[in-house]
Write the structure tokens for this entry.
Amino acid sequence: MRVVMFGYQTWGHRTLQALLDSEHDVPLVVTHPRSDHAYEKIWDDSVADLAAKHNVPVLLRNRPGDPELLETLKSVEPDLIVANNWRTWLPPEIFDLPRHGTLNVHDSLLPTYAGFSPLIWALINGEPEVGVTAHRMDADLDMGDVLLRRTVAVGPRDTAADLFRATVALIAPIVRESLDLIASGTAVWTPQDRSRASFFHKRALEDSRIDWTWPAEDLDRLVRAQCDPYPNAFTHHRGKPLRIVEAAVSEGRYGGTPGRIFIREGDAVVIVAGADARTGRRHGLAVRRVRTEDGTEYAATDYFRTMGGYLTARPT
């Protein structure tokens, strides 16, 4: 088959490598220009550089609506388009152009967590597993018929970086198997249950802001979901931003006001958490490492020299 690839960052890079390693011909690659968006500078293996290394023509586009792109696609006569981490909607004149349509590879277990940053959102929400879905693209975002799904269990201390590494390793095998099924005419496409669909937006700075009324269990997952190299979950201390680098749910239960810098517990400092923390039935967030605005990292027990005072969502 002749397979055109639409993709970006490491997800697109792994997809293109799988196509290049296959028996299929890759006549064209379409990718986005490099971006200064904080999340798009992470896992940013270059699709364009990989294509150029293998002498595959590359088109750079932010959006795919121009006539030149459509004419170029028609000229290469693809049998299939494979997309992974293409950041904008593809119109039907593109995704329906090849005789086998467009296979989209998405890093969630569709129909849940369609859209953006699915691993981060899934970890924050305490999902027991994540994964990768290969499905046929249609007019609705990430809602086309499913060809293959592969799952990864979420461990009790997994971070978003752990889940990225586990799911990105699934890209090459799921692409290879999907191509084999499509080329052999044995692909079975299963409609998604749209009543279970959930759609998530791109993450931004506001989404990393800590709300101390969340239960400690939720805050622990937020910190792990915003681990390095992602922009860390952050709060404010004495009017200045403070990033929480490492934390866990406290062993003890602590009562009081959310955000109170309360007590040392082992190698951590416990921050009172939970909307009903006043009852004393909630665990706190045991903070182990923090990072200040200038990038300096501290053990929490070194940074918080005395107990008392508050961490707040915004400067006070």
Observations:
- The two ends are 61 Å apart (CA to CA).
- The chain has a mean pLDDT of 96.
